[in-house]
# Entry
Amino acid sequence: MKNPFVKTRKMLCFLAIVCIGNWLALHANLVAAQEEAIDQKQAFAQTRIAVQKAIGPIERAMVGYRESRRCFSCHHHTHAIIGLTEMAVRGLKVDRDLLKIQFVQTVGRTQGVEQRYLNHSNIGGGVDTTGHALMAMRTGGHLPDETTTAMVKWILKRDQGRGFWTGTKNRPPTQTSDATRTWMCLDALEHFGPQELSNEINERKSKSRDWLLEFEAKSTEDASSQIRALHVIGKADLAVKQFATELINQQRDDGGWAQTSEMESDAYATGSALITLHQYAGRATNENFYQRGIKFLKSSQLEDGTWHVKTRATPVQKYFESGFPHGRDQFISMTATCWAATAMALTLPKQKKESEKLTSPIFELSKENETQFLARFKKEIWPLVSDNKKSSCVRCHDSKHRSSLRLAGEAKSDFETMLSNGLFHPKDPIGALFLITSDDKSLVMPPSKLPGWNDEQIDALKRFSQDLYQARIESK
Ligand code: HEC
Ligand code: HEC
# Structure
């Protein structure tokens, strides 16, 4: 019989070797994991810097746009709101005031044309404008109300009996694809559609699903929107998966996507394709294709933080400088920069559970300050706003006025309206001070045919606005 102790000794030896081996392997794994974590951290830090660099020019252009124009836009409103909201959730430094102003403007401009929606009249830009406005409103957390219901009804009346929506403009890539229009309209119906219209909405959704499944994408814009639209309708997971694979197959050797097969890769197509694949088709941002896309974006980002994409749209609007670089290409480059920076930001871990709503007022005051400033408003500002001969604001801005500023002719409620519309902003072009002192004939209030406020009145408004700005609750 063999000595049992010898056997046990051998066993113990064997076990010790196994243990040491395991420990060594574990240690090696641990070191590798640590190294990977450090690499990952560095990659996140680099991405963070790149995205942050893009935010400055986007924010400056938002203000620059307001300095020159009053109207709601897809490029400087919706695209910026969608992009900056995603970036803020991922802990990037975004100026909440600027973002809220852009949002408040979008809602205000839209409410200003509510009557046109109710009458089913023509809206400049058609469903492109309506869809973009509602998308910005949804992103900022705007809840369904009378205006959005009127807009949904207006959308349902367009292209009735069809499984898609068409448009009046042909401005590629943003304003040309019926798939994009269909996606935006479906998104609007989904989020703002009232219960009483659910039959009509479901019918439209089902028709759209059929159309989308048959739709042959001819551009990256088409392909992205087809996926987005099917995702919004739901119950089309297989198709979404297949279309996503097809879109990934369109990726070029340089890691980017091109708008069309004849064009080169650019930030617009690459950014929007990546966003689509992650947010609407559930593909992960650490997949190889996504990382290659990010590499392309990083290598094509310019020193000033922006991306330059050439326009191929026929001009519609009178040209002006919004403060974004790239001259005549600035409108598409603004959008492209929003998409590229957003696609990069999506690779970063979220730092907040969900995006902060933009619906709270730009100017929040403590109860005490509100009482104090209301008293000052009544004394110093209200007489100028309501009882200032032809220059009185209340005279035109009554409840039926065609702009978003509707004053009731009653001091307390008008103070609140002016406060929440940001009219007391002393620096931003949204403020009354800016409008009253503007030398731009298309912006100045009261309108340029009328006498403006005198220096003393302007000084009173300036003092009031500055004090109020100091006293507001910082929301950053
Ligand atoms: C429905 C979306 C949308 C809205 C709303 C919109 N724009 Fe644009 N805008 C575009 C698109 C698309 C382009 C073309 C961008 C490109 O590819 O170069 C553009 C381009 C421009 C240009 C460059 C010249 C031109 O027309 O191509 C200016 C200036 C401009 N927009 C100003 C405005 C102003 C002012 C308003 C408010 C009346 C406005 N936009 C509203 C989508 C919109
Ligand atoms: C003679 C009539 C008239 C007077 C007086 C007048 N406004 Fe206006 N206001 C308008 C019109 C018309 C518009 C819309 C312009 C447009 O759509 O481009 C407008 C637009 C505005 C807007 C932009 C609202 C929006 O939808 O973005 C603001 C803010 C504004 N006015 C403030 C004032 C203030 C402050 C005063 C007083 C100092 C004033 N207005 C006096 C006619 C007037």
Q: What stands out?
A: The chain has a mean pLDDT of 93.
